[in-house]
Amino acid sequence: MTQATCIPASPGPFARLVTALRDRTQARRRRQRFLRLLDMDDHMLDDMGVTRAEVVEASYLPLSANAATELYRMSLERRRNFM
């Protein structure tokens, strides 16, 4: 008698849809929290090492991109070019 191998079934279309919707909702919430940076005054943003223009530019990225990571990259690049 041979032992059957158990191969996990791939998720069905409904499970994939639910996962995609959940991921999209989480991305929108992250972006909404990110956009709260625009409520801060320029001095607060400067203390954080970013400019308002960088925050706006990062906010235009697609939801699939991590705006906070891109903002950090832009800030580092600006400071590196300044030196």
What's the short story on this structure?
The chain is an all-alpha fold.
Alpha-beta content class: mainly alpha
Order of helix and strand elements from N to C terminus: HHHH
Strand content: under 5%
Helix proportion: 55-70%
Number of helices: 4
Write the layout of secondary structure elements.
Elements: H1 13-35, H2 42-48, H3 52-59, H4 67-82
Protein name: DUF1127 domain-containing protein
InterPro entries: YjiS-like (IPR009506)
Pfam family, one: YjiS-like
List keywords for this structure.
about 80 residues, mainly alpha, 4 helices, about 65% helix, elongated
Q: What can you tell me about this protein's structure?
A:
This protein is mainly α and 83 residues long. The chain has one domain (14-82). Helices cover 65% and strands 0% of the residues. The protein has helices at residues 13-35, 42-48, 52-59, 67-82. It is elongated, with a radius of gyration of 21 Å. The protein starts with 12 loop residues before the first helix and ends with a helix. The mean pLDDT is 91. InterPro entries: YjiS-like. Residues 25-55 form the YjiS-like domain. This is DUF1127 domain-containing protein. Pfam families: YjiS-like.
